[in-house]
Amino acid sequence: MRTALAQINPVVGDIDGNASVIIQHINIAREHGAHLVVFSELAVPGYPPKDFVLRKDFVRRNEEAVDRITAACTNITAIVGHVRSDGHGVGKGIFNAAAACRDGRIVASYAKQLLPTYDVFDETRYFDRGNGPCVVDVPVENAVVRVGLTICEDLWNDRQFEGRRIYGHDPIEDTVKAGAEVIINISASPYSAGKYADRETIFAAQIAALGVPLIYVNQVGGNDDLLFDGASLVLDQTGRVLARAKAFDEDFLVVDHMGGADHRIEPYPERLESIRQALVLGIRDYFRKCGFRDVVIGLSGGIDSAVTAALAVEALGAERVLGVAMPSRYSSKGSLVDAEALAANLGIRYDVIPIEGVHTAMEMSLTSQFGDLPAGIAEENIQARIRGSILMALSNKFGSLLLTTGNKSELAVGYCTLYGDMCGGLAAISDVPKTVVYDLARLFNQSGDKPCIPEQVITKPPSAELKENQTDQDTLPPYEVLDVILERHIERHWPIDEIVNLGFERNLVSRIVQMVERSEYKRKQAPVGLKVTSLAFGTGRRMPIAAKTQS
Amino acid sequence: MRTALAQINPVVGDIDGNASVIIQHINIAREHGAHLVVFSELAVPGYPPKDFVLRKDFVRRNEEAVDRITAACTNITAIVGHVRSDGHGVGKGIFNAAAACRDGRIVASYAKQLLPTYDVFDETRYFDRGNGPCVVDVPVENAVVRVGLTICEDLWNDRQFEGRRIYGHDPIEDTVKAGAEVIINISASPYSAGKYADRETIFAAQIAALGVPLIYVNQVGGNDDLLFDGASLVLDQTGRVLARAKAFDEDFLVVDHMGGADHRIEPYPERLESIRQALVLGIRDYFRKCGFRDVVIGLSGGIDSAVTAALAVEALGAERVLGVAMPSRYSSKGSLVDAEALAANLGIRYDVIPIEGVHTAMEMSLTSQFGDLPAGIAEENIQARIRGSILMALSNKFGSLLLTTGNKSELAVGYCTLYGDMCGGLAAISDVPKTVVYDLARLFNQSGDKPCIPEQVITKPPSAELKENQTDQDTLPPYEVLDVILERHIERHWPIDEIVNLGFERNLVSRIVQMVERSEYKRKQAPVGLKVTSLAFGTGRRMPIAAKTQS
Fold first, then answer.
1. ipTM of the complex as predicted
2. Mean pLDDT on B37-61
């Protein structure tokens, strides 16, 4: 059986556009002599379609698109992910489905059985569970191949929570028992750093145990916070990788699942490089899918804005990026020099807009209220908010996407100003811990012809420069320490006691956890942030605000 | 059987505090001679505990609190809502449970069977389904009463989606079949306008059909966006209301479910008054549970800030409220007069901080970028952001809660400035359509000794006053029209065609829907808003941003 893996990048909600791309790939697959062409999970509406699924006209239009796609499947079978409505029985009557389309007919339809409802996933909000396997005969010359349809989480049936197996059954095993000679899995599996290795290991173990080959087609592209890494796979019945599509890019791969010579096995990038590519894809797709014309970034001379700018240049090209330095009375000369050098190295447009005039005017406005009270956080935030307002004025005036430059460590502990440096449409590195921001800076400097991020930006002590002689470590532990505590607390939900057992002082751990919990209100109002860790702030973390915290 | 309904207002996450309140009410119930005392759903952790439930130490502490509560149940049975962990079987092993506690033992435990996962609810994210009814013998003098335990959604088992019944079985019927002589339902049922009547109708119909009485204990209080209205109920076996606790306030009601003389039936407020009381409760509880000292509100002289200020005064007292007028070159004299009159009528502190100085300084800063381009939205937003920054400076300096004053209609169509008038910790009226804001203003003016909101504020054409001679209706249809379209589109998910069929022009409906869809990025960054309609922006509406929309 000759199979085409169509690893496309759908736009969420763009049913007509996605259907056109699907039909186009069906035609290409036919030209390649494929018997079967496979698309990713919910390819017609794009994944995740979220509350669009609650609109009956949206579901109807998505089903009409499937009809058009089906009509295009002459002499080829296509497996197409879509939202299926079903008038029978009890429940929502809405399924996350894979249709097998051939010669104008939906010859079989599978409904996803394992519906992830944790982290960023809300599938039981939208879908009913399918109630059994689906094996479809695919004509191959004068024979048929019995192909078992499954969707994404079905392959992750050994998922655990606190050491317990979450799901009660294994849809893959059931599909093989139902006679499948090949397992198809259509997927939209969001990237996080390191997940890829787990994915191949988990898939290979199941496939080897069941003794049937796997054709796995994953979505690629950025959809808001979620970054889909593609890297679609073909495994033989022993679990060995026969073919792998590109990571972080669209791809089209034609394979013969029974083996054969000429299969591409694209490399999967190592961890840090995968983070970089994921962020580049996320920026590019958010920008493109929202229809922006260019990007504006505030350049402080610090490492966060430097890495954000470098990512933006890689995603969109230097000509689309404007860097703006906004020095204040507390800005060091070095910061302005560093910002200018960075802009020059990257070849981006660069402006300097000093904030002293507005800063002084704002102080005068507040004189009668603030009186002789000592300066504090309020005064620091004023400066950050003036900068945010200037950047938003440029964004509004020129239709630019403002990229926020805050990292995960500072967003975690609230070391950022709401409506100040948190302003922006997309938070490019808000899920990147500060220590990894440094790693990315070094990676950028190693990978180009010459270093683009001035060495001084990497080596100087990080500072918000909102008062005299300020550095981040006035109030925070070293980032090497902070990031370990944050990772255990946020991504792994470890109790304070267990974090202390790693060898940290209890007072320090408690203080950090308290800072995280007290900053929930800020994160509530943060822009969409690109997810690269196993647990990002945003849709994957749902915390109460007016709550008593543990610390 | 003498039963106490303990309608308490738990703080989410405050396990120790909530447990103390529960034990206190157990003791009071015993003093009243009650055989049984009933608390609301998840009373120990508070509802909704959200991702706290993912922390094993949180679940452990909540179970330890249940042990302490159980130890306090001497000679009385208490029904206590809590998170139950369970080491057996497949699944998360976490349940939304009701424990029947007596004489130091948990004599029975029920796990909720119907787990709402729609709108603001994410219960399958956290909990496994219970698998059957639980009937417990409650000792009453020398006999026992067989009491059936159920939780919230179990009573809403006829819930529909698009005309289909969602749930496959009826836990209430199963409980009666298992021998229950009385149904207990512990609940945390969020308020929306008009929901109360549905609730009594639905409950009464089921109870009458099954022929057993109902004791229904609902949570009261505001927890972030969700407002719980209490109004706990006792229905006799015919579905007749025997007793009703207060709406929007804590209450403690002792009843004999077999009838009896002296039962209180508190009135439930009519629709508009219920909205007012819900908002007052929401402001008060967010303020109190977050630990703020006072409140600051920007007073524009318009109706939204006037109603927000009136609500804040009712919630917290005039002495805790500061109103700040921030006139610009475009502010009418009338606006300042109206703001001042409002502040005087309400008896709140009042300051005027003109923004001209900062406005001019900001324009000068942007001269080189903006050049001779005609003024537009960017220039308007600058003014709103200066005001937002001033209010946030006061909030940061004095620890005040900034209340955002935007209404649902303008938030829907994006007629608001991100980081400008959208600044704040809590959006008091962001789920109140503009037409209802007017109704609330009139209600306030009718209900006090004398009108608090100047008549001029109600009668003048609404305007953002961000440029010369601006009114909302320059770009929007009349609010009476807008609000009807928005309600159909947002709360009911109606297709454009069906809205047009109400008699509106297609161009108008399409334009409004498009405005709603293009403003999703603003709402992503909006503060917590108090939910009073059947579908509010926030946790109940989950939309993609970088998406192709329908219009």
1. 0.96
2. 97
